[in-house]
């Protein structure tokens, strides 16, 4: 928990599949808002460290805790525990294609609340690994002005169809495409040889065209802004947020 000692904890409640659902939220900083959604196994020191980089760059960062133990390090045990938690939860899609993850409605509510609090053109949303595509699902709400997908890995790429899927329903994909046609952009960051991402970046390029800004890092790493942090990736994220959120407030 030491990694979160300087952060303020609260709770956010919103609908998921017709039921009020509450998750902890950690907040820090000032300036335009950014929602950082942690990877498996949870809000690790590396995730909190990346959040701190955004705070230092002049952003208000909120980190929802969707699973795992807040502040715990990434280990084999913590990762296995988080995967078990994710697999039994009805808040997340794991293998289904053409479906938006249910927790997206909760995340959109969080983004709307942050936008209402801070004003400006909207907030940033960054997902990573299992939650990478969640930022794209959040873009369905107008409050999200800068979605970033770091190594999106759901649904699990265990078949060619799943490896291409964007974790979005057709209706939500139409909304995303409409926003992109109106000038919105989406940033994606991955290691070029990361098998967990599958062919999703190709799908995003096909569906969104020039509105999808892709950063393909060389190598076989996975966690682009945390465990296998790339300065190029972090710089791309900061530049994207700076361009899309700079007039907030």
TrEMBL record:
Alphabetic keyword roster: Hydrolase
Q: Which Pfam families match?
A: DLH
Q: Where is this region: Disordered?
A: 1-27
**Highest taxon of the lineage:** Bacteria
Q: Name one GO molecular function term.
A: hydrolase activity
Provide the Dienelactone hydrolase domain boundaries.
30-148
InterPro entries in the record, alphabetically?
Answer: AB_hydrolase_fold, Dienelactn_hydro, Dienelactone_hydrolase-like
PANTHER family named among the record's database cross-references: ALPHA_BETA-HYDROLASES SUPERFAMILY PROTEIN, CARBOXYMETHYLENEBUTENOLIDASE-RELATED
**What is the recorded name of this protein?**
Dienelactone hydrolase family protein
The organism is Nocardioides baculatus
């Amino acid at each position: 928990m030491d990694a979160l000692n300087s952060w303020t904890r609260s709770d956010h409640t919103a609908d998921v599949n017709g039921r009020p659902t509450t998750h902890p939220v950690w907040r820090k900083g000032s300036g335009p808002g950014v929602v950082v959604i942690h990877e498996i196994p949870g809000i690790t020191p590396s995730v909190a460290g990346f959040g701190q980089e955004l705070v230092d760059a002049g952003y208000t960062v909120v980190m929802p805790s969707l699973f795992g133990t807040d502040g715990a390090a990434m280990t084999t045990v913590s990762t296995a525990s988080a995967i078990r938690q994710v697999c039994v939860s009805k808040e997340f899609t794991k293998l289904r294609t053409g479906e938006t993850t249910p927790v997206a409605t909760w995340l959109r509510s969080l983004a709307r609340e942050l936008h209402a609090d801070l004003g400006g053109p909207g907030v940033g949303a960054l997902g990573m690994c299992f939650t990478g595509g969640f930022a794209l699902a959040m873009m369905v709400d107008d409050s999200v002005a800068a979605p970033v997908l770091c190594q999106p890995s759901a649904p699990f790429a265990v078949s060619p169809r799943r490896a291409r899927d964007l974790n979005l329903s057709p209706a939500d994909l139409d909304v995303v495409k409409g926003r992109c046609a109106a000038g919105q952009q989406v940033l994606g960051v991955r290691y070029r040889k990361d098998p967990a991402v599958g062919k999703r970046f190709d799908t995003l390029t096909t569906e969104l065209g020039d509105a999808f800004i892709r950063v393909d890092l060389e190598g076989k790493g996975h966690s682009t802004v945390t465990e296998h942090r790339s300065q190029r990736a972090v710089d791309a994220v900061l530049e994207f947020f700076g361009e899309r959120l700079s007039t907030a407030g």
